[in-house]
Structure formats: structure tokens, C-alpha cells
């Protein structure tokens, strides 16, 4: 049988789908026990349609979503437009019309996934989104299927290809922030609004989805604290190197005694930690669990072909289930009530970078402030001052988010101290 697909959008990822369907057709047909045909592609307007046709794209481009929704021959709708609207409306229409849907839209799934998944279940259709987390790494299906027997306790991940690519270029090759971002955009890694990449928002969306698959808990996007790479200074990078760390934007989802905690933040990773060598557009998801122990899933987190590969895997899975007449199973069946962790239970080492007056007694003042919150130092580094101010770096042993918030307030209350940055440190 030939299964007809309606594509929504024909940008970076979507335009990689025909390549795989053609170049890997034998294996895909064998796996799905069906062929696939891209029957219609929704583009924004006639101008875009004419531009694509003139460029030699021989497809049936349409500009009205109803031409796909009302086409009873189309069984699978693949949404690759991004953003919330009109993607949400179009996916809802497709599901209501009984079509199976594949998407890579983490923004939408992290913020409105609950209602979309419920609608898909109600209609008995599939809604799959493997590409939404870590692009080419098949992490969602791995968590949902291969790790069902294991209990996941923590997921750490380099989850944004754009920011990791930028950090690698800036730190290892001395590129400027602007040049690194421009190249990430040209290579098709960045979101249409790259603020989502560099401010940790894209990784926070992925953390929401990972909490569902890893921990069975659907948390809200607002429950994920997030900070991006834009605040990292060259000094932070240099000090990290001097102390034996690498700074990366890391997503951290873990279950404590009181509940789940999800954060995205620049993080000091010990050089020997496997995540510290994940460079460029590569992503990695490091899973801690009671059975396997530690496992890491590594691969390109963005880019046309890697992402399209994950999208096509979802299409093939739906095709096979259609052939076997057992379509409609939820992508992730692990569900428990969501419980957020008490901040007092969420603990890590922290790095503090501060400017203090360049005169005696400052380390004592700092020791009193940290001691007042029962926080102990792991490393202290003072750089030679300029007579006015001196730069001090403190790495602490594990402290809780409550202690972090208290000590930060106390440091900020000292008018002659400047707290430049504080980042999580793994392993202290
Ligand atoms: P692009 O911006 O390259 O492509 C999206 C396309 O959809 C654009 O051509 C856009 O047109 C078009 N579009 C937007 N609105 C409409 C509309 N109303 N009707 C028809 N077409 C529309 O994005 P990507 O291909 O990079 O990303 C697609 C999805 O995949 C996003 O959800 C993204 O987050 C996700 N993703 C992307 C990855 C990547 O590496 N790029 C990796 C993993 C996931 P226009 O440009 O004119 O707005
Ligand atoms: N913009 C995203 C990234 C795409 O750079 O990781 C993959 O989700």
C-alpha cells in the first residue's frame, strides 16, 4: 500500500524528508511494509509556492490547510513549521480529521502537549515527535521503549546544538558571538527566533519533554528554570579551564525525595565527565538510572538530515502500525502525577564569580556570608587586584537551591560587592 503524507512547511528539516524517502526507500518500505508518497505540501503563499516550483521542487504545493485536512487519502500529517500558531490549530484540525501527526515542534509540545496528546488518544491516532529532543538522537523512543525496565534518577543533557556550536567556536577558535550565531543560522541549526537557542528556552522545552519520557511527569514550561549562554564571560571560561572544568549549557532533570526538578543553565563540567567532550552541533543525553547505571546517547542535535531522519523514523513507525492495523498507541505511556521538588532537596556545587574591594578582610567577609548559610568552600581563587577591585572565584561543595537563593541575596545586599555570575558545578 502507498501511504500519503501531507507536509506542513518546507524549510530546513522538511526539505530533507524527500531525500531520505528516496535514498533509503528499500529499507523504509521493508520496515513499514508500505510505500510513502508526499501528496501535498503546505506553504505560506503563492509567492513561496512559485519560488519553490521555479527552484525545481516538483511537488503539489498548496496554501490552504483545508486541502490537506479534507483530503481523505492523506493519512499522515507532518508539521515542520515551528512556533505555536498556526501549528497548534493545524495539528488540532488534522487530529480531529483522524490523521496521524508527526512533529518536531518542541515549543508546542512543551507548552500544549497535554491537550494535543489527549486529543490524539481520544481520536485513536498517533502523535509522534522523536525529533523534538536532541534532533538526530533517538532518545525519546529509547526512554519510552528500551528503558522501560529501568528507573531513571537523573537526565543531564547538552540539548541545544546552536548554543553548543557557538560555545565551541567561541572558546576553541576565538570566534565572536555574532559570527558563531550567524553561522549556526546559515547551517540550519538555529530556531527561527534564535533567542530560544541562546537563552536556554529551547533546551527548557526539551527538558519538559524529557521529564515526561524519563520520569512520567508532565511539568509546565514555567517549572523549568532556565538561563542561557549569553551571560557567560571570557573570564568564566578561562577560570573554568584553570580549575579543570568545561562550561556547557546543560539541561538537568532529576527526581529528589520530594519531587522532580528541571533546570537549564551554564554548568561547570569536570573535564573527565563524558558530557564535557560534546562539542559543536553535537548533543548528548546522559542518563543515570538504577539498572544500567550511567549511559550516554550522543549525536547531532540539529541540522537537516539528522533531524529529518528522526522525523522519517516516526513516519515509518506509523506506516508499519497502519499496515499491522494497531495504530494509535501513545508515544509515551509512562504517566504519574507531577510533583515538583522542594528547593531544599535540589543540591549541587556552585561557582561564584565576584568583584570585591581590593583591600584586606574581603575573604573573611565572604567566608562569614557563606558560613552563615552553612555553605562550605571547595576552591577559592583570588586574582591580583588593580588597587580598586579584586576578582574572586569561589567553588562550593553541594548546596541547595534554598541556600543558593539566600547566599545570592546576601551577596547582592553588600553594596561594595559585585556578583558577576554564579553557575552550577557538577561533581562538587
Ligand atoms: P524553518 O524555519 O527552516 O522551516 C519552517 C518552514 O515553515 C519555513 O519555510 C516557514 O516559512 C514555513 N512556515 C511557517 N509558517 C507557515 C505557515 N503558516 N504555512 C506554511 N508554511 C509555514 O524551520 P526548521 O525546518 O529548522 O524547523 C522546523 C521544526 O523542526 C521546528 O519546530 C524546529 O523547532 C524543529 N527542529 C528543527 C531542527 C533543526 O535542526 N533545524 C532540529 C530539531 C527540531 P517562512 O520561512 O516563510 O516563515
Ligand atoms: N535549534 C535547535 C538546536 C534545533 O540548535 O538545538 C534542534 O532542536
Automatic annotation (TrEMBL):
Residues 351-425 form the ACT domain. Its EC number is 1.1.1.3. It catalyses: L-homoserine + NADP(+) = L-aspartate 4-semialdehyde + NADPH + H(+). It is an enzyme of class 1 (oxidoreductase). It holds the Pfam family Homoserine_dh. The keyword NADP applies. Pathway: Amino-acid biosynthesis; L-methionine biosynthesis via de novo pathway; L-homoserine from L-aspartate: step 3/3; Amino-acid biosynthesis; L-threonine biosynthesis; L-threonine from L-aspartate: step 3/5. Keywords: Amino-acid biosynthesis, Methionine biosynthesis, NADP, Oxidoreductase, Threonine biosynthesis. CDD domains: ACT_HSDH-Hom. PROSITE patterns: ACT, HOMOSER_DHGENASE. One of its GO terms (molecular function) is homoserine dehydrogenase activity. Its cofactor is a metal cation. InterPro entries: ACT-like_dom_sf, ACT_dom, Asp/hSer_DH_NAD-bd, HDH, HDH_cat, HDH_CS, NAD(P)-bd_dom_sf. Transmembrane segments: none annotated. NCBIfam families: PRK06349.1. Belongs to the homoserine dehydrogenase family. This is Homoserine dehydrogenase. It comes from Streptococcus dentapri. The lineage of its organism: Bacteria, Bacillati, Bacillota, Bacilli, Lactobacillales.
